[in-house]
Every structure is written in structure tokens, then in C-alpha cells.
Amino acid sequence: MIDINVPHDASDSDDDPNYNAPSFCEHESSSEDSDDNPNEDEDEDEEEFVEPTYREERPIHVGRVYDTSEELKEDVSLQNLEEFRTFCSEAKHINYWRAKCVYDDVCVWHIQASQIKHTTQWKVNQYQPQHDCIPNCTCGLQESMVCSNLGIGETIW
């Protein structure tokens, strides 16, 4: 990053001899600034720390219980989005749900859950967390259009 310091001109109306020129560098701080607030470094550390999400604290696993089917499906969707994966519902019934990877001919990823009797809760009965497929990030795009762009410009190896 380029550090741009504006030199102080003595002819300015603020003839403060301790004037510090503004710096546009994000990581630069003057020693005077850090002396003013001794807890400033602690505040910066707290800002950098990111609380784990609820999903990270409670990963999907066999036996996990969700309050509703919507909560289950949202959790599965978020995980697949984070991993750039695509899945589809293979079976949907009033008290049963099974989803699989869209590349099921090469990928074993799947999840199966059912509603616990006389409740609104859903329990994961089967779960294969590992995707064997390689995401190509073209989901929703036509492969012929994506591939045709490779012929234009540089050769990609």
C-alpha cells in the first residue's frame, strides 16, 4: 500500500509545531497515538477476533436434532454454500427428507433426516459429510458458454 504523507506547510493557519501530517496507510500509527490510549491495542485485537458462528459451534452430524425442518435445511444450505457445493433434495415427505450432491454419479455426499414422532423436531439419521466431487463454480451457467470463453485470448494450462 502506498503511504501518502502530506507535508506540513509552515504558512498554514495552524502553526502547530507538533502537527502530524495525515497518513492514509491503514497499518501505520504514530507513537503519540498509542501513548494516548494504552488500551487501544486491546481494542484492535478484539475487533480482529471473529466469534464462531452457531453452525461452526454445532456441526452437522448423525444424531443432531433440529427444532424444525427449515432450520435443518438452512444449516445444510449454509454449509454447502461455504464449501461452494450444490445439492438437491432427493426425497421430500411430510416427515422425511433426503438430499444429495448434484454430482451424485461421482460424489457420495448425502444427508437424510426424519421428524421425531409427535414433535416438530428433526433428527439427522444418515450423513456423509465428505464431497468427492470438485466444485467447478459453474453451477447455474451453461458449460458450453464457460468453455467457449477459454478459446478467447490466452491459452490456459
TrEMBL record:
<feature type="region of interest" description="Disordered">
    <location>
        <begin position="1"/>
        <end position="61"/>
    </location>
</feature>
<protein>
    <recommendedName>
        <fullName>Transposase MuDR plant domain-containing protein</fullName>
    </recommendedName>
</protein>
<feature type="compositionally biased region" description="Acidic residues">
    <location>
        <begin position="31"/>
        <end position="50"/>
    </location>
</feature>
